[in-house]
């Protein structure tokens, strides 16, 4: 039988009128735990000798090799205020990261390619959905 859409007509109407949809508890606790463990491992293995800072205020991005390679690699970007005047981290790296690179479907591939996600995308009218980006945002406050 194939994958079918999973959204109700009310949800579709809301998405079509608002442009977004909030689905409470869409990912189950096991999926979330799996992605968090994978991210913890990636972050533990991350050697931050190459530093790149993510800024929402300064959209004019310095286009260095690290930034360009992040499309194909798993890369991490620091918060703007992560480093002190002496260049050292103010907090441990786990508390200094803003976000990882955009190629993290490797981190969430099992979830991103699940029937649950495919059904959601089919409900929205996509015929052959392809996940090209996933986002994992760290909530850090300096």
UniProtKB/TrEMBL annotation:
**SUPFAM superfamilies given for it?**
Clavaminate synthase-like (SSF51197)
Cofactor names from the entry are:
Fe cation
> What InterPro entries would the database entry show?
Phytyl_CoA_dOase-like (IPR008775)
Keywords of this protein's UniProt record, alphabetized? Dioxygenase, Iron, Metal-binding, Oxidoreductase
Q: Does the keyword Mitochondrion apply?
A: no
**Name of one Pfam family that matches:** PhyH
Concerning Gene3D superfamilies, the annotation shows: q2cbj1_9rhob like domain (2.60.120.620)
GO molecular function list: metal ion binding; phytanoyl-CoA dioxygenase activity
Does this entry carry the keyword Chaperone?
A: no
Q: What is this protein called?
A: PHYTANOYL-COA DIOXYGENASE DOMAIN-CONTAINING PROTEIN 1
Q: Which organism is it from?
A: Salix koriyanagi
């Amino acid at each position: 039988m194939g994958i079918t859409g999973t959204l109700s007509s009310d949800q579709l109407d809301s998405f079509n009128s608002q442009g977004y949809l909030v689905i409470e508890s869409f990912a189950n606790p096991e999926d979330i735990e799996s992605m968090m463990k994978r991210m913890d491992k990636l972050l533990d293995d991350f050697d931050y000798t190459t530093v790149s800072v993510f800024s929402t205020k300064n959209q004019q991005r310095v286009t260095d090799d690290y930034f360009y390679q992040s499309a194909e690699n798993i890369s991490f970007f620091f918060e703007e205020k992560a480093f002190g005047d002496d260049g050292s981290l103010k907090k441990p790296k786990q508390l200094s990261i803003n976000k990882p690179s955009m190629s993290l479907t490797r981190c969430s591939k099992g979830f991103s390619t699940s029937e649950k996600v495919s059904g959601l995308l089919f409900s929205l009218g996509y015929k052959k959905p392809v996940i090209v980006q996933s986002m994992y945002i760290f909530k850090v406050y300096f």
